Structures are given as C-alpha cells and as structure tokens.
UniProtKB/TrEMBL annotation:
Its cofactor is NAD(+). This is UDP-glucose 4-epimerase. Pathway: Carbohydrate metabolism; galactose metabolism. Residues 4-252 form the NAD-dependent epimerase/dehydratase domain. Pfam families: Epimerase. Keywords: Carbohydrate metabolism, Isomerase, NAD. Signal peptide: none annotated. It catalyses: UDP-alpha-D-glucose = UDP-alpha-D-galactose. Belongs to the NAD(P)-dependent epimerase/dehydratase family. Its EC number is 5.1.3.2. Homodimer. It comes from the Bacteria. The gene is galE. GO terms for molecular function: UDP-glucose 4-epimerase activity.
Amino acid sequence: MKTVLVTGGAGYVGSHCCKAFARAGWTVIVFDNLSRGWREAVKWGPLVEGDIADAAEIGAALERHRPDVVAHFAAYAYVGESVERPEIYYRNNSVGSLVLLEEMRKVGIDKLIFSSTCASYGIPSRTPIDEEHPQAPINPYGWSKFMIERMIEDFAGAYGLSAVMLRYFNAAGCDPDGEIGERHEPETHVIPLAIEAALKQDRTFTVNGTDFDTRDGTAIRDYIHVSDLAQAHVLAAEKLLGERGIHVYNLGTGNGTTVGELVEAVSRLSGSQLRVAYGPPRPGDPPILVAARGKAERELGWFPQQSDIDRIAETALAWYRRQL
C-alpha cells in the first residue's frame, strides 16, 4: 500500500484529508504535536506525537515509516495573531518547514504536498485569481507560507524535490458523515461564528464591512468544502507518484458568496434568525477573493462536488448541533 505521512493531521483540514487518503486506499500516518489539533480527530491511522521543528522527532518518524508522500499541513493559521506575534509564525511555519525539508532530504523522501494559501497573493489586482497572479502577502501568516513555497522551489532546484503546492481559498464545511468537523480555539472562521450566533441566542455575528463595491456591500469570498479540498490532495498525491516537478494549484470554486448571503443561508437552514452587528472592515481586507480554478480541473481532474454554500452550511450545522 502507498503511505502518506500527514503533518498537522489532527487539525481541521489535515484530519479531513486523512479520511480521504484512507478511503482511497492509502496507509495514513499522522504527525502532530496537538498544540492546535485534536487527538479525537485522528481516526484513520496511528498518531506520532512530535513537532516538525524538532529534527530528531520528525526525522525519526520519516525514517520509521518511509512514506511515499508527505502531506504538510502543520502551521499556525490566524492572520490577526500573526500580526500580533509574527515571531511564532516564522518560527513554527517557516523554520519548522525548513526542518521538515531537511529531514526529508536526509531520509531520501522526495515528494511533498504543501498546504498553502491564497493569503500569499495579498490584495488582488484582478479577479478571479489565477496561479500566475503576483504574490505580495500583507501579513506575517501570508509571508510565512510564501517563504515555504520559496524554500520548496529552491529544494526542488538543488535536490530534486517534487511538490504540489495547493493554495486554498476559504476552507469551510464539515465531514458529511459527521465523523470530524471544524474546531478552533479561539474560533475566527466566519461560518462557525455565524452558526454559533444561530444556535446560541447570546451570540452576535459581526459583519466586518458593509461598503465594499460588491452586490450587497459585504465582502465576497470563495468558500470551498473541506471534503473537496481533501479530494484535491489525494489527486495531487497520485500526480506526484507519476510526474516529477513543482506544480501549483488554486483550490476554490470560482464562485463568490457575500457575507450577507452567507448570513441568509445559515439563518434559513438553521431556522434561526442571527443577531447581527455591523463593524468596519478589517485592515487589508480585499472586497473580493475568488479563485480561477481551471488549472486544477485540467491537470488534476479536480471538480468540487460539495461546495455550494447551502451544502457547506448544512454539513457545518449538522456537526455543530452534535457538539451541543
């Protein structure tokens, strides 16, 4: 059987990808220090507790399991926190990834899937955003991911590393089977916050910005169901087994949903009117972030199946209701 070692496999996107790999017949090894992941989300293979920044720990895991592919999700991912504490983002995300790359090279593992982000594009100069759009991050989180992409490209040139770099847009939704879901502490993602406001009468959902140049004045984002993201990683791994090189893909639907439309969908599907407050836009928030997804379709054969906003909200609502 093919083996994938998943760093950060106890986290939101990583755990959903573990399920997709297991369903596709891969042996899954999770490597996670559980600082921001959840032990109970590790269901499709053994958990190796360790830190990617610890060369001995990640090196031993690579040596023992000898994966065909490493899928790298382990990262801090709060934009606001990255502005307040940039050092932990560069240390954990960028330096930790350098340690991983070095240990992969020592062990002789040369295939990597990297969980990147549309935050590396910064404020877009055009939409939809294709993979050739200039990268100009505007926060330490985006810069930390951009730096990892640069390291991967340099390791490819120097040592023959092959990699697929997947730039996510807005990961959303929960496992349709209800086995795992989205859980962050603190929670900053818009759909969980909207659902909390729908299910808990003491919560208020804040809309950040109402004067954007969009159809209802609220920001437009490209929400992609986490299970669709997971399927893209399986396709990326299969591509790496048959084709060397560096490949970059945006993962989004190509369609945008306004925050106002999201609030309406959550209210309608939950049967509960959200209590909504309105605030100023967050610094640096672009009015529209929408992916051009054509390259992933052509080269990976990837087509989102569950990323309609109603389906995203429906699966997320089902998960959160089980947690009450």
